[in-house]
Structure formats: C-alpha cells, structure tokens
C-alpha cells in the first residue's frame, strides 16, 4: 500500500480530474442571456415558467420561486398558520435553517433525536416531544434520504399537526414511490450551489393546499395578497418579507432543471457504486437506505466505528481522530468534509434562548414551559455529529463511475492505513 497523500505520498485523484459543479454549457448561456436582455428582470416569464415546470415534475399544485431554501422554509411556517409562542418539532441534527425558520416566525423549536443509521428524525420519538402548544413538524429529508412519511403523517393526523417537508437537499428522492415535497402539507427546496439542482442561490416553496399557498405568498411579497405579475393594490395585509428571486437566477434554474434527469441518474449511479464497493472495511460504517426509499446521494456519509477500532470513551480524542481521517481522505483528492459538527441543541442561538433580545420568543408567556435544550438528551444526534464525514460534490455530474471508483480506492487506502493516522501530525 502506497504512502498516504497526507504524509507526502501520491494522491489517488489528481488535481483537475474532478470536474466542477454545476456543469455549464451553451444551453445555460442562451437561457441566461435571454433573461438578461428581457425588459422584465424582477418577475417575468422565467420565474413563472420555472414554478409551473417544477410543480408539474414534483407533483404539486402550487410552487413559488424564492431567493433561498431558508425563505421557502419560513413560508411553510407562515403558510401553516404557526404563530408567536407556538411549538414546532424539528430534528436535532440538520442545517440551522431547519430550525431558525421557526424562530423567524416567533415560534419555539422543539428538538427530536435522530435514528443513528439513517441520520433522520426518528418517528418513534416524535409523540413524546409533542406539547400542548405544538402546531407543526418540520421533517428534514437530510442528505437526500426521505423520512418515513407514513409514520410522520399518521402522527400528525392524530394530533392535528401540519407537516412541513424540508426537502432542500432531496430533489427527486422518493419514499414508496412518492417524491420528497409531495407528501406533507407543504415543502421547501433549495437551489444554492451545493444542491443537486443549482441556480447559484434560490429556493422553491410547494404545496397542494390553496390556503397554505396564499398565506405563504403574503410572507413572500411584502404582506400583499396579489402576486407581482397580478394587479396589485400595494396594501400590506400581513407582515411580509421580500423573498422573491430574479429573472437571471430563474433562467439558470430552468436551464439546469432541464438536465436534472441526467444529473439525478449520474449521482444515483455514483452513490450506489460507493455503497456496493465500500463494504467490509473495519472501522467504517456506510449509509443505510430503507428498501422503500430512493436516495439522491446529495451527500454520501461515512461514519467511523470507534468500537470496531477499539477506541475508548474520550469524546475529544474521537472527534480529533475523525477530523484527521477526514483530512487524510481529502488529501487523496476527495471532496470530503465534516458537514455539520454541532447538533442544533448545542448552538448558542437556541441554548441562550435570546433570538431577538429580551429572551424573545421564549419570553412569550407560556411559550417556554418545560422547553430545555440539553444536548445530552439527543444521544444519537451527538454520536453521529462526532463520527461522520460527508463526501460531497466529487460524485456530481459530469463525474462518472471512473471518479467514483477512485473515491472507493482513496477511502480504502486511508482505512487500510488507519493505524497510522496520527491526529497531532495531521492536524498540528
């Protein structure tokens, strides 16, 4: 076995071999130039047509193009009638926006631990987290894998709760043949550069419920009841933001969306190749995909099995070892990182309970009754945050199975030398 690249050995993947994401071609250029020379730059044909195209593809009646996935999540909170002091359940391990969108509308996030094998909210732990003030659940299809939506929707129906799907990473992923974003009461997608469908920055809100759609649209555009392309009276009927996007971004979104079938198939093939060829490695845990799910492999997540490696209970030492392994794999030419090293209940914005000053929104009378953010209450999320690594854009189009195989070789090379990983030497 050759020397690890992190110690000066040869890289498995050479600089320039992995092509950048997203791939841009003449069709993208033509679409964006069409928007550039259009007399309407704020809300024109590309924005409107992209909404129609995405809704038809995903199986939704309504779609609204936004300036971010975070905005689309906030629209879901508002659309579902969540208000000041209400409680909203959300997974303890996710991107911060999945929970800060709740704070944006003066409501209180209540965290639910994850299933360690899928990294997703554990449906078996939802009911215990429901409080008398709970109005909704934000379910996060994290890394491109869908939550068990049958279980979630059953709980929601029994407790009269709304379900908002955070599908920001899950374009095209399915549960029992149904697409992410088509199973709850509404959903949010992101289109920023990291996503499987990219427009640089942007997002899209979807729903099949007209009342949710109209409430979300008020938030999206200054509290007005009419959309910008309609006859507007410029009267604010509710508190609103400016979450609209522009024509140049919409044009890129449309052009990239036309190629999404290829992108999705390419990513699926690369992810499945890793899953099939990284088994049986001591100290390495692979993602678990339920039989009724189709993963879009937005991220391919590796976990270090510290027990298999005979490592003790020193958490700081384990985290440092994980970071060193991650850096060793990256040195081989693989785009790998620790995607999110903190669980949300560890983050200051929640633990301090002071998002807006004066302890608000937790200081709303009755809103903080029994709400605690003790990280140790979420053991699976903590365990996952301390052992995982995420392989990201290396597997995106136009990179094919030749690159995926080199990723396999790089990971195997590092784990074959796992006994030579010295965190002090690698991390300094």
Topology readout:
Blueprint: H1 26-36, H2 45-58, E1 62-66, H3 69-79, E2 87-91, H4 97-104, E3 108-112, H5 126-129, E4 134-140, H6 149-159, E5 162-166, E6 174-175, E7 178-179, E8 186-190, E9 203-207, H7 210-220, H8 247-257, H9 260-277, E10 284-285, E11 293-294, E12 300-304, H10 315-331, E13 336-337, H11 348-351, H12 379-387, E14 388-391, H13 401-416, H14 423-427
Number of helices, counting only DSSP H or I runs of 4 residues or more: 14
Shape field? globular
CATH level 3 topology of the largest domain: Aspartate Aminotransferase, domain 2
Mean pLDDT: 96
Instruction: Write the element-wise H/E pattern from the N-terminal end onward.
Output: HHEHEHEHEHEEEEEHHHEEEHEHHEHH
CATH architecture of the largest domain: 3-Layer(aba) Sandwich
CATH class of the largest domain: Alpha Beta
Taken as a percent bin, the fraction of beta residues is 5-15%
Q: By CATH's scheme, which homologous superfamily of the largest domain applies?
A: Type I PLP-dependent aspartate aminotransferase-like (Major domain)
Q: What is the CA-based Rg, rounded?
A: 22 Å
Query: Kindly, what is the distance between the CA atoms of the first and last residues, rounded to a whole number of angstroms?
Result: 25 Å
Can you give the helix content as a percent range? 25-40%
Biggest β-sheet strands, sense, barrel:
7 strands, mixed
Structural class by SSE content: alpha/beta
Query: For the largest beta sheet, what order do the strands appear in spatially?
Result: 1-9-8-5-4-2-3
Taken together, the total number of domains comes to: 2
| Number of extended strands | 14
């Amino acid at each position: 076995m050759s020397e690890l690249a992190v110690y000066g050995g040869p890289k498995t993947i050479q600089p320039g071999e992995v092509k950048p994401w997203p791939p841009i071609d003449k069709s993208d250029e033509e679409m964006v130039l069409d928007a550039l020379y259009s007399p309407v730059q704020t809300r024109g044909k590309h924005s409107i047509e992209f909404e129609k195209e995405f809704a038809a593809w995903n199986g939704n009646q309504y779609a609204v193009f936004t300036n971010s996935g975070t905005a689309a999540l906030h629209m879901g909170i508002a659309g579902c009638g969540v208000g000041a002091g209400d409680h909203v359940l959300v997974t303890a391990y996710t991107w911060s926006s999945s929970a800060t969108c709740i704070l944006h509308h003066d409501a209180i996030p209540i965290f639910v631990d994850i299933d360690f094998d899928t990294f997703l909210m554990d449906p078996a732990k939802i009911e215990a987290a429901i409080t008398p003030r709970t109005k909704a659940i934000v379910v996060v299809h994290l890394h491109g894998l869908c939550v068990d939506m049958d279980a979630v929707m059953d709980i929601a129906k029994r407790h009269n709760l709304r379900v908002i799907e955070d599908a920001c990473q899950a374009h095209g992923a399915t549960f029992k043949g149904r697409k992410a974003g088509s199973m709850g009461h509404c959903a949010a997608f992101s289109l920023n550069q990291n996503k499987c469908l990219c427009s640089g920055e942007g997002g899209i809100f979807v729903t099949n419920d007209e009342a949710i759609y109209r409430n979300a649209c008020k938030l999206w555009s200054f509290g007005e009841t009419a959309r910008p392309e309609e006859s507007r009276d410029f009267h604010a009927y509710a508190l609103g933001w400016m979450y609209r996007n522009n024509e140049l971004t919409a044009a890129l979104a449309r052009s990239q969306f036309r190629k999404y079938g290829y992108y999705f198939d390419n990513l699926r093939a690369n992810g499945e190749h890793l899953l099939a060829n990284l088994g049986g490695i001591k100290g390495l845990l692979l993602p678990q995909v339920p039989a009724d799910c189709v993963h879009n492999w937005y991220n391919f997540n590796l976990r270090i099995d510290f027990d298999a490696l005979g490592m003790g209970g020193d958490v700081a030492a384990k985290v440092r070892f994980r970071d060193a392994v991650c850096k060793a794999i990256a040195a081989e030419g693989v785009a790998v990182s620790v995607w999110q090293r903190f669980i949300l209940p560890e983050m200051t914005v929640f633990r301090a309970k002071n998002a807006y000053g004066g302890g608000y929104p937790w200081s709303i009378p009755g809103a903080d009754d029994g709400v605690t953010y003790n990280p140790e209450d979420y053991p699976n999320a903590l365990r996952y945050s301390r052992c995982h690594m995420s392989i990201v854009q290396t597997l995106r189009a136009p990179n094919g199975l030749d690159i995926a195989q080199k990723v396999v070789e790089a990971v195997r090379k590092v784990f074959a030398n796992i006994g030579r990983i010295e965190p002090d030497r690698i991390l300094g």
